[in-house]
Specification:
Radius of gyration: 41 Å
Shape: rod-shaped
Structural class: mainly beta
Distance between the termini: 185 Å
Number of strands: 35
Helix content: under 10%
Strand content: over 45%
Number of helices: 5
């Protein structure tokens, strides 16, 4: 019996020696090579590390040094200086489920091709790691990441698992092409729903803070988002810059605040932008709101040829449309001010009061083409309930027929300028007058026009101007029907008889100053509204009582030779 007892004791001692020897051998480079080689040869993964470190002061932790791990024939998923694996009693039933996994000083690449990974943890912790998640909805690259995911249960298509709490900070990060630094994220994943309870970052020389949620279908709910002192330059046009807002299924905005932002693109820019947007949902290329509000102001806004100074915009959203409470801006040296409503029912904009003062505006070279081009579908009608203009300068630099009006004043009421997306004067009345004007290098004084429009006719009841000598007066009617029939009646008293020549009429066979009388009718082609086809009569009489009468056909004038004056019989 004593022999058997001694034998058992020696066997136990030998077993303990073997275990201790194996324990110490595992912590050598030879042991690390043997373990990593066995895993590489017998699994779908490749693993290499320099050493295993275990300390009795922390018996539940195993430390791997200089680790490289990944799937066969794939780039490494993990490269880390140290991997600290925390064990628990669960290893007895689930050896690949750790209590904690701490990754330090390395790179973690998580993409659909790397999942599912063979191990799990109650908590995955990162310390000074680089984190990359390409080929996913979140194209993410982050450096100096510290934080954790709890629990970490990776599976195919979900590298972070279906349900987990997330808390991370990063020194720098690029998400879907947008760079940021000093990033802080706290939130959760729950079966495709990503909740960001705390989001903070420095980006574009400014800061971002907010709270948001991404639904499983890709739509977003922004509870609040604040952007301070953003300085952003983009290579995209303004339309492309906002295009991502139209690609998501839905974007529900609770509140967005922007303070002192400066944004710039190839043909647009905005400086010192302050904006507050509340309670608005964008979806399916449109928007919905119950009680939304927008307040916005800036120092400058540039979009193509539009250059606004100190624009201020306040509006309210409702199911019926948009109430434009205030819009003011300095533009082209003048001041614009208006308010009104955009109505969803007919895509019509009704402006209650439009004031234009001190404007110095040169029309675009292609303004005639723009006049004929239909407006977008969201703006089918435009009506000015009240229009007032004062001290404006309007210039057209068309070399074929340049003109300008100085100190242009006017007023109008119920002017409908857009109908079914087409520009025109479709309804209302207006009176315009100026101090001086030049039409194709012919100077006139006190030009004035009064018109009234309805569904069938534009009636110009007064059109007058003083020339160098005398006065020109005219009336006209223009049909609103597709044929666009035009009737003109013009009278000139004591005017130079060649005054009409620079405006397209042939020279008259008589010269000097005199009286003119013109009656004409014709049509305006819908595709070329400024090139009428007319016919009519033109008569003229100079101060020496020489008279001429001409017939006009198709915009051309046929001249009849003047009849000689009858001889005066000699006085006996």
């Amino acid at each position: 019996m004593k022999f058997i007892g001694k034998l058992v004791l020696w066997l136990l001692i030998a077993l303990l020696v073997v275990i201790l020897a194996f324990y110490f051998l595992l912590q050598t480079q030879w042991g690390a090579r043997q373990v990593s080689g066995w895993i590489t040869d017998h699994t779908r993964y490749h693993l290499s590390f320099d050493a295993i470190d275990h300390r009795f002061s922390s018996p539940a932790h195993i430390l791997l040094k200089n680790v490289t791990f990944g799937r066969d024939d794939k780039p490494a998923t993990l490269v880390a200086r140290t991997v600290d694996i925390g064990l628990s009693s669960r290893q007895l039933t689930d050896p690949l489920h750790a209590d904690t996994i701490l990754l330090q000083d390395g790179t973690l690449n998580l993409s659909p091709s790397t999942a599912p990974l063979p191990f799990e943890a109650d908590r995955l912790q990162l310390s000074n790691m680089a984190f990359n998640s390409p080929q996913t909805d979140w194209d993410l690259s982050a450096q100096r990441v510290t934080g954790g995911v709890s629990p970490w249960l990776p599976e195919a298509g979900n590298v972070l698992g279906k349900k987990a709490a997330i808390q991370m900070s990063a020194g720098s990060m690029t998400l879907n092409g947008v760079p940021a630094s000093n990033v802080l994220i706290q939130g959760a994943i729950d079966h495709g729903v990503v909740t960001l309870d705390t989001l903070g970052a420095d980006m574009a020389r400014g800061s971002l803070t907010g709270k948001a949620r991404r639904e499983a279908d890709g739509s977003w709910v922004i509870d609040n988002l604040r952007l301070d002192e953003i300085r952003l330059q983009s290579d995209k046009s303004l339309t492309d810059f906002f295009a991502p807002l139209t690609t998501v299924p839905s974007l529900q905005i609770g509140r967005i605040d922007v303070t002192d932002a400066r944004l710039q693109g190839p043909d647009w820019a905005v400086t010192d932008l302050d904006m507050s947007l509340r309670n608005l949902t964008l979806s399916n290329g449109g928007w919905q709101s119950q009680d939304g509000k927008l307040s916005m102001n800036a120092s400058e806004f540039i979009w193509g040829s539009i250059h606004l100074f100190d624009p201020i915009l306040n509006g309210e959203f409702s199911p019926q449309g948009i109430a434009l409470r205030q819009f003011t801006s300095r533009w082209e040296g003048g001041l614009l001010r208006t308010s009104g409503n955009w109505l969803r029912s007919d895509n019509g904009l009704v402006l209650d009061d439009v004031a234009i003062a001190g404007l110095e505006y040169t029309l675009p070279k292609n303004w005639k083409q723009l006049w004929m081009k239909p407006m977008p579908s969201w703006l089918s009608n435009l009506t000015l309930k009240k229009l007032s203009a004062s001290r404006n300068l309007v210039i057209d630099i068309d070399p074929a027929f340049p003109w300008q009006i100085t100190s242009l004043d006017g007023y109008g009421s119920n002017l409908q300028l857009l109908k079914d997306r087409q520009w025109g004067v479709w309804n209302g009345n207006a009176t315009l007058n100026g101090a001086l004007a030049t039409f194709n290098r012919v100077d006139v004084r006190r030009p004035s026009m009064t018109l009234t429009a309805n569904a069938s006719t534009v009636n110009i009841s007064e059109l007058s101007a003083f020339t160098e000598k005398g006065i020109l007066e005219a009336t006209a009617t223009v049909s609103q029907l597709p044929q666009r029939q035009v009737n003109v009646s013009l009278n000139g008293r004591g005017v130079p008889l060649n005054v009409l020549q620079p405006w397209g009429w042939p020279a008259l066979p008589i010269t000097g100053d005199g009286n003119l009388q013109l009656t004409a009718s014709g049509s305006v082609q819908a595709t070329a509204p400024l090139k009428p086809t007319v016919s009519g009569q033109l008569s003229a009489e100079n101060m020496n009582h020489q008279k001429v009468s001409q017939a006009m056909h198709g915009g051309e004038i046929t001249t009849a030779a003047p009849q000689p004056a009858p001889e005066t019989p000699a006085t006996p």
